Amino acid sequence: MAKDRTISEVFLVNGSTGDPLLYVDYPGRNNALLFDAGELGTLDAGRLGDLAAVFITHHHVDHFIGLDRIVRANLDQEKTLHLYGPEGTIRRVYDRITSYEHPFFPFQKVVFRVHELLEGRLRWADLDCARRFPEPEVAERALRGRVPVVHANDDLAVEAALVDHTVPCLAFALVEKPGAHPDAARLAEGPLRPGPWVARVLDLLRDGARPETPVEIDGGRFALGALAARYFTTSKGSRLAYITDTAWSESARPALLKLAHRAHRLYCDSYYAATELRQAQTYRHMTATQAAELATAARVEELVLIHFAPRYRGRYEQLLEEARSVFPRTSADLGTSEMRGPFSSSGRR
Ligand SMILES: [Zn+2]
Ligand SMILES: [Zn+2]
């Protein structure tokens, strides 16, 4: 999956056929987001070290095995890295981190703030490296609504909801705030390279600074208006939904429709073909047809299928065609599906 139109850099780390993982970044800012934490060996330490927040749908191995690499890539940093997941996430993350021996160098000051979403409330605890990861002290607050905002910064908000899988599981939507945002494709073209100036320019644009305002970049002087025209776009506030490992059931439907409502793009579980509807109900996944039905009902602009079952290897197009017959604006990233074989989801269900 190539560059996104408005949110600056968005890609499926393992395409549509490996463990589902969505990486979202704004060039020049250390605030990347990651949806799910399965096999992520192709993300380098730089990309993992840029993470500000990780949103884990659930604790099945294909969504959680990459946690150790995320922890490792951030241990030497002085920052708070937010991790979100369903009930049990605080204990599981704590157990994983403390299953290693750490040298505890004085420069290791990272705090992992782990949040878990339950029905109507959010719990969180800080796992503090400088304090040598003592037992977590858990705080809790009430949340309103079926699809609460769990994370927000100057650029975006992330909504989460409980869905219907075989274990506690969440789905998410990322909502970009209206206004100026960096354009990754144009930043990649240059000639200026992304850097701290991107955040400075964004702040100026959002503060309504005049177009002639001078901005110093690498010893050169540029007018704010010219930078805005060349490297930034204006968003009306687009929405990306990330939905996986849930049944398309009566209990999940209201939250799924809300998360996906008029999304610019919906990434959606299509583990099975419609002919395997009973399997989908047993293992609480969606079929390609159900993903397309959700896309239609939620009036999304574009549907991207993710998390194909390994049994479809060599004939993934079948799932794509099935969804397209219901919702034509459907795509999938089949790019290197054969290479991804060993890392695709476990089991032969
Ligand atoms: Zn899964
Ligand atoms: Zn699962």
Overview of the molecule:
The protein is α/β, with parallel strands linked by helices and 349 residues long. The protein folds into 2 domains: 9-177 and 237-343, 4-Layer Sandwich (Metallo-beta-lactamase, Chain A), CATH 3.60.15; 180-235, no CATH class. The protein has 11 helices and 19 strands. The protein has helices at residues 45-49, 61-64, 67-74, 89-98, 184-189, 196-206, 224-231, 253-260, 277-283, 288-297, 317-324; strands at 9-12, 22-25, 32-35, 51-55, 80-86, 111-118, 121-128, 139-142, 149-152, 156-162, 170-176, 179-182, 214-217, 220-223, 232-235, 239-243, 265-269, 303-306, 330-332. Strands 1-2-3-4-5-6-7-8 form an 8-stranded mixed sheet. A 7-stranded mixed sheet has the order 9-10-11-16-17-18-19, with helices on one face. Helix 10 runs parallel beside helix 11. The chain starts with 8 loop residues before the first strand and ends in a 17-residue tail after the last strand. Mean pLDDT is 91; it is low at 1-6 and 337-349. The structure holds zinc ion (2 copies). One zinc ion binds at residues 58, 60, 165, 245.
How would the blueprint of this fold be written?
Blueprint: E1 9-12, E2 22-25, E3 32-35, H1 45-49, E4 51-55, H2 61-64, H3 67-74, E5 80-86, H4 89-98, E6 111-118, E7 121-128, E8 139-142, E9 149-152, E10 156-162, E11 170-176, E12 179-182, H5 184-189, H6 196-206, E13 214-217, E14 220-223, H7 224-231, E15 232-235, E16 239-243, H8 253-260, E17 265-269, H9 277-283, H10 288-297, E18 303-306, H11 317-324, E19 330-332
Parallel strand pairs: 3-4, 4-5, 5-6, 16-17, 17-18, 18-19
Antiparallel strand pairs: 1-2, 2-3, 6-7, 7-8, 9-10, 10-11, 11-16, 12-15, 13-14
The protein binds zinc ion (2 copies).
